[in-house]
Write a structure and sequence with these properties.
Blueprint (H helix, E strand, L loop, with lengths): L7 H21 L6 H12 L1 H13 L5 H12 L11 H19 L3 H13 L3
Helix pairs in contact: 1-2, 1-5, 3-5, 4-5
Length: 126
């Protein structure tokens, strides 16, 4: 599938689901059996502030290849018409960039890369 024809916000929409599913799965596999505890752990990774921090970590540490950086730029520069009240627009755009990257990798069926990035996020104290 040609991802150039897919709107960046659509990639982010998909990527949001992929990203959150993998984060949730990680904590469920740790045998956390109370939903409230799961939610508290997951929220630390799926908030716009956390997602913005992770994408900037990837960029600053040269973790992404050129193609991935292009997708991140597309996601960051997408025209958003609203954002959550508790998040500034710049943080929200960076979070959208991370989601766009995960949506892109999912469409490209690049599961190994998705897991590489998730493992970096979960394994690093950023």
């Amino acid at each position: 599938m040609n991802t150039d024809q897919i709107n960046s916000l659509v990639l982010a929409y998909l990527g949001d689901s992929v990203y959150e599913l993998l984060i949730r799965e990680h904590f469920i596999k740790q045998n956390i059996n109370k939903v409230n505890n799961l939610q508290n752990k997951v929220t630390k990774y799926v908030s716009a502030k956390a997602q913005a921090k992770y994408i900037n970590y990837f960029l600053k540490n040269n973790i992404l290849n050129e193609e991935e950086i292009d997708i991140v730029k597309r996601g960051r520069n997408a025209k958003v018409f609203s954002h959550p009240k508790n998040t500034d627009i710049l943080t929200y755009k960076w979070a959208t960039a991370l989601e766009c990257l995960f949506g892109y990798l999912y469409i490209k069926e690049n599961k190994n890369r998705i897991y590489d990035l998730i493992n970096i996020i979960l394994g690093e104290d950023l």
